[in-house]
Amino acid sequence: MIELRTPAELDGLRVAGRFVADVLDALLETVDVGVDLLDLDRLAARMIAERGAESCYVDYHPSFGKSPFGKNLCTSVNDAALHGLPHDLVLQDGDLVSMDFAASVDGWVADSAVTVQVGTQRDEDQRLIATVERCLAAGIAQAAPGNKLGDVSAAIGSVARGAGYDVNLQFGGHGVGRTMHGDPHVPNDGRPGRGMKLRPGLVVAIEPWLMQGTDELYQDEDGWTLRSVDGSRAAHVEHTVAVTEQGPEVLTLRRAQRDA
Question: What is the DSSP letter of 198?
């Protein structure tokens, strides 16, 4: 069921969005060569506890997961595209790292992700990151009243395909509110002018992700991490966005984005 949020409910979602952004800011300040993925997860857990928030991941157990996720953060490294399960892995120079985080604050959920490269920068990886960020910006720009859901999807896919990347449609954006995943599904490619009409009060997570050489995935033995079938690297970004009378409002802007 698709729910439209009242102004008071959007205020609650804004609080959740700011908390999620603050956690990602802290993670971005910490992630580096020599840092263990479990240390990143512990940082997220500590901030959740200090805020009195709730993790959306620890008990999360959808049909495609082998068991409850059990961690507070998705950390997807190099050929891992999505749902990276934190484990005892020390980041190396040049690693490409996605950090995806969702939490509930006073019953309202926000969800966001960012991809960075640690240490030595590789041109092909920086191009990949820049492309998914442009995909995200294009999708957000279409999240305005009167547009259709297909306009959001088509904008994302157009940027990705224009840059030479294939688009996987198995996983994409989703509604956000009282739970982490709800309706509507927001594919990362589509046809403009199709789908539901966007109305003020709709809140969705828009999350483009791309792999450098393929659009096909396989599931790691950990039962969660999704990797590219050809070993090519991946990038994933995401924001929680509210459709308002004034246009799209990004609820999970990080500090640098708010100051820009």
Answer: P
Q: Is 221 annotated as a binding residue?
A: no
Angle at CA of residue 30, ends 24 and 32, nearest 5°: 120
Residue 238 annotated as lining a ligand binding site: yes
Beta strands in the chain (DSSP E): 54-55, 74-77, 80-82, 96-105, 108-117, 173-175, 182-186, 203-206, 209-211, 217-219, 226-228, 234-236, 239-244, 247-250
Say if residue 87 carries a ligand binding annotation: no
For 121-157, what is each residue's pLDDT tens digit? 999 999 999 999 999 999 999 999 999 999 999 999 9
- 249 among the known binding-site residues? no
* Percent over 90 (pLDDT), the chain: 96
Give every CB contact of residue 162 below 8 A, 6+ residues apart in sequence: none
Q: What per-residue confidence (pLDDT) applies to 66?
A: 85
Q: Is 133 annotated as a binding-site member?
A: no
Are residues 151 and 186 in contact, defined by beta-carbon separation less than 8 angstroms? no
Residues 13, 252: contact at Cβ < 8 Å? Answer: no
Report yes or no: 219 and 84 within 8 Å, Cβ to Cβ: no
Quote the pLDDT of residue 79.
Answer: 98
Annotated binding residue at 207?
yes
Determine contact, residues 248/141, Cβ cutoff 8 Å: yes
Are the C-beta atoms of 242 and 251 separated by less than 8 Å? Answer: yes
Annotated binding residue 259 = no
Cα-atom radius of gyration of the chain, to the nearest Å?
Answer: 17
